[in-house]
Amino acid sequence: MKTLAIEDLMIDVILTFCENAAELGCPRDQEVDMWFRYLPYEEQLKVVDKMLSIQERDTKEDIMENTDEKTDKMITYQEIELDLEEHVIKGLCEYALKEIANDTEALINYAANKILAEVIETDGACLKSSDE
User: Fold this and answer.
1) For the segment 82-99, what is each residue's pLDDT rounded down to a tens digit?
2) How far apart are CA 38 and CA 26, in angstroms?
3) 79 φ, ψ to 5°?
């Protein structure tokens, strides 16, 4: 995971603000800092919201520029929930275990998810010892 120094973040924010001053609503005859300083607080918040939208848009554009030129769409991952029969679930689990047999991290994730699912399904009853 990439870490970012607060100075780098500040530089990015200031550059985005200055580069997009006109789009943010700054009149041509005013200096950006003075225009923003004298806006009412509610208007400042609107400018910040607009700036976040600009940063998001620009980030998406950067991603699209850096992808394979043959690809004309961005791929996004979404989590979905399937209602499967028990025998199908068992078959999928068996298949997954065969496929990830040499991937320790994937096996740990699988085991952790399986344990958490059982805890949720039993409302924690599986955690109680048989002595209780």
Assistant:
1) 676 778 777 777 777 777
2) 11
3) -90, 135
H or E element in which residue 68 lies: none
First to last CA, the chain: 44
Non-local CB neighbours of 28 within 8 Å, separated by 6+ positions = 22
DSSP tag of 109: H
Tell me the two tokens of residue 40.
């009412």
Q: What ranges do the domains of the chain cover?
A: 6-65, 86-127
- 108-117 residue pLDDT tens: 777 777 777 7
Q: What sign does the CA torsion over 100, 104, 109, 110 have?
A: positive
